Amino acid sequence: MKEFQAGRARKSLGQNFLVSEGAIRKIVEALRPGEGLPIFEIGPGKGALTIPLAEKGARIAAFEIDRDLAALLREACAGWPQVDIVEADIREVDFDAEAGKRGWRRYRVAGNIPYLLTSTILLKLPFSAGCDGAVIMVQKEVGERILASPGERNCGILSVFMQAYLGISEVAKVKAGSFMPPPKVDSVVLEFRPGRKDGAPAKPGEFLAFVKKGFSQRRKKLLNVFRSGDGPGRHVGVPGGREAAEKAFAAARVDAGKRPEELGLDEWFRLFEQLGRPGDIKE
Question: What is the pLDDT at residue 103?
Fold first, then answer.
């Protein structure tokens, strides 16, 4: 595999370069690259994934915010015309729009992403209609929360929302020593596959806002989070106050005394049907 050298990792960009051949191999295998497979890569860095994917014939658009790294990687990949190194901030990238520009009907997403951008990047996936799957490395503790079943103490916004629209599985655990420089935490590689669950709301944006509202005060009972109130600092939720909220919970067959991490996925879906109509939930 070709390699090239670049300068020091930039802490401000959360750069930790993957160097473990074993981890690289597992990620590439999970992506199942084939001749002409379109892949969007997030933060290619020194090309640890870019180059082996290119060697297998994948078509790659790799988004790198570091101008120097982008220039060096562009030079290193000059022999593969199907590789496009794009200097861009991934937060501003619309995968479906980029796919449209390239004539890609379906695509996959890959990346060893900066941990400070994990939520921002992962939350793009359920909204990306053309995404045929993604293999993403995240901080181990974040990965454990994403994989936690709704209803378990460790679950959160990402657990509920991502599992509503995607199938998620663990590909590999990756030790801190697999990077240069080593981060302070271990990592995990997750695979995400298209798979909206039965009962999941048709509009992911509305459901995401609803789940965020539910977890806005994690230690409070959901009835107190969603009911209306008159005083300063009270949560605004169901018009009609506590009585209306109690009726909505009863109709959803959800215990109003539960906290957000205690709800299963089906309970979230039923509660959204009762409380999540646009205009009812306010930030």
Answer: 97
Q: What's the N-to-C CA distance of the chain in angstroms?
A: 50
Percent over 70 (pLDDT), the chain: 87
- Return the CATH class of domain 11-194: alpha beta
Buried b (16+ CB within 10 A) or exposed e, 165-198: bbebeebbebeeebbeeebeebbbbbbbebeeee
What letter does residue 69 receive in the DSSP assignment?
H
What is the percent of the chain with per-residue pLDDT over 90, rounded to a whole number? 73
Pinpoint the residues of the chain covered by CATH 3.40.50.150. Answer: 11-194
Residue position matching structure tokens 């909220």 = 245
Give the CATH H-level superfamily of domain 204-275: rRNA adenine dimethylase, C-terminal domain (1.10.8.100)
Closest CA to 273 of 182, 203, 225: 203
Using CA atoms, how far apart are residues 72 and 53, in angstroms rounded to an integer?
17
The most distant pair of C-alpha atoms in the chain lies apart, rounded to whole Å, by 68
Mean residue pLDDT across the chain: 88
